[in-house]
Design a protein that fits this description.
By secondary structure, the protein is of the alpha/beta class. The chain has one domain: Alpha-Beta Barrel (TIM Barrel). The chain contains 16 helices and 15 strands. It has an eight-stranded parallel β-barrel with strand order 2-3-4-5-6-8-11-12, surrounded by four helices. Strands 7-9-10 form a three-stranded mixed beta sheet, covered by helices on one side. Strands 1-15 form a two-stranded antiparallel sheet. Helix 3 runs parallel beside helix 5. It is globular. The structure holds 5-hydroxymethyl-3,4-dihydroxypiperidine (IFM). The site of 5-hydroxymethyl-3,4-dihydroxypiperidine has 7 residues, from loops.
């Protein structure tokens, strides 16, 4: 069965600065928390770092040419805050701004619309020395950075997002310590959540005050959870993880309240006026989605929550993530009902890691990724059919890249990258996606 997407459906790909740019010490860029974290022993698989990554800082013209060939309408990138403000605030690094000027111009010249995310986890290290996201002042510094960036690029970039997956940055960065800056604690995670919510509010206010013609949003992440058993302790853990991971940002930002299970603990951090500031009118509703999980009580976790590996025999990606397109369809329907209302919905990340192999003839036959994309895009069609206004879909990711604590061991790209030579090679999934982006209907399995 072949089914078409609605007229004007937006096809895109997403990346993030630290995962692809490299050039971490070039042209005045300051260090970020990820530079520091990666260079601590034992933090990243194989001792990998983002020092070079995909060398996109130098090779972006080649990458933009690949995007043009792909035929996408939009490219979502993130800006590295420490490239623009090496200390996080104060002196501006003009060379950093000039890099993004060139990049945005190149994307536009290729007929692609740039979508810019202001924060994909690379906080300037200088701000972490001042307690980073646990410090309310960071929200103000973030808004200054947002204003500066919009002033420079807002004449060419219309779609802006304040944060990518703020939940992950807080729960992993300041909760379980598995991501930069590697802090483990319950209070630290809750503080980071509230300060990042404030930063979102202040950032939106600052950007709107500068230009009224921008389209502003945030990028959430929805990961449906089920209790691993009928034991009460697993059910409690499941509800808490759902509140923490899925709701601690969209609830206050869209509904004006923290999830009940967290509200009492966060209350002491909330000052008069905070919630009104956090609940800003947005122009679109965006989220990322990959998989679902079962949750059990884990007494060693700061929130006593843990996830189980998928059931034996369930289809999984190289991340061990269950392939469950039905959960994606349900997430889109739930997102509309609970949060988005009439706002257009965009899926700004979805994709899969697989252990790709370059065949002797140079081809990468990544059928597993094609099958994943086919089934998840089928879920998008089902959600649209059910009345969810999904207006666009962005694959994670254009290139194989630095997968955070897993280093270069996981490949998510439509384009294969040889990290020794930096050679790019479109995979079969690139050609599959290009056909869709050029208007072909989706052949459903
Ligand atoms: O690589 C990440 C990305 O930075 C944020 N969303 C999930 C992706 C895959 O883990």
């Amino acid at each position: 069965m072949a089914t078409s997407f609605p007229e004007g459906f937006l096809w895109g790909v997403s990346t993030a600065a630290y995962q692809i740019e490299g050039a971490v010490r070039e042209d005045g860029r300051g260090p970020s928390i990820w530079d520091t974290f990666c260079h601590l022993p034992g933090t990243i698989a194989n001792g990998d770092t983002g020092d070079i990554a995909c060398d996109h800082y130098h090779r972006w013209p080649e990458d933009v040419a690949l995007m043009r060939e792909l035929g996408i309408g939009a490219y979502r990138l993130s800006i590295a805050w420490p490239r623009i403000l090496p200390e996080g605030r104060g002196e501006v690094n003009l060379k950093g701004l000039e890099f993004y000027d060139r990049l945005i111009d190149g994307i536009l010249e290729a007929g692609i619309e740039p979508w810019v995310c202001l924060y994909h986890w690379d906080l300037p290290q200088a701000l972490e020395y001042r307690d980073g996201w646990q410090n309310r002042d960071t929200a103000k510094w973030y808004a200054d950075y947002a204003l500066l960036t919009v002033r420079r690029l807002g004449d060419r970039v219309k779609h802006w997002a304040t944060f990518n997956e703020p939940n992950c940055a807080c729960v992993k960065g300041y909760g379980d310590g598995g991501h930069a800056p590697g802090i483990r604690g319950r209070q630290s995670a809750l503080k980071a959540i509230h300060v990042m919510n404030l930063a979102h509010g202040l950032g939106i206010e600052a950007m709107r005050s500068e230009r009224a013609d921008l389209l502003l949003g945030n990028i959430f992440n929805f990961h449906p959870y089920e209790p691993a058993s009928e034991r009460e302790e697993d059910e409690i853990a499941c509800e808490l993880l759902d509140a923490l991971w899925n709701r601690s940002f969209p609830d206050p930002q869209m509904l004006g309240q923290y999830p009940e299970l967290l509200a009492a603990e966060i209350e002491s951090l909330v000052e008069p006026g905070d919630i009104d500031l956090i609940r800003q009118k947005l122009d679109y509703f965006a989220f990322n989605h990959y998989t679902r999980s079962r949750v059990r009580r884990d007494p060693d976790h700061p929130f006593a929550v843990g996830t189980l590996p998928s059931e034996p025999g369930a289809p999984v990606t190289d991340m061990g993530w269950e392939i469950a397109p039905d959960a994606f369809r349900a997430a889109m329907i739930a997102a509309k009902e609970r949060y988005a209302g009439d706002l257009p919905i965009y899926i700004l990340e979805n994709g899969a890691a697989f252990p790709d192999r370059v065949d002797p003839d140079g081809r990468i036959r990544d059928e597993a990724r094609i099958s994943y994309l086919r089934s998840y895009l089928g879920a998008v069609q089902d959600a649209i059919e059910a009345g969810v206004p999904v207006r666009g879909y962005f694959v994670w990711s254009l290139l194989d890249n630095f997968e955070w604590a897993l280093g270069y061991s996981k490949r998510f790209g439509l384009v294969h990258v040889d990290f020794e030579t930096q050679e790019r090679r479109p995979k079969d999934s690139f050609h599959f996606y290009a056909e869709l982006a050029h208007g072909a209907p989706l052949e459903r399995e």
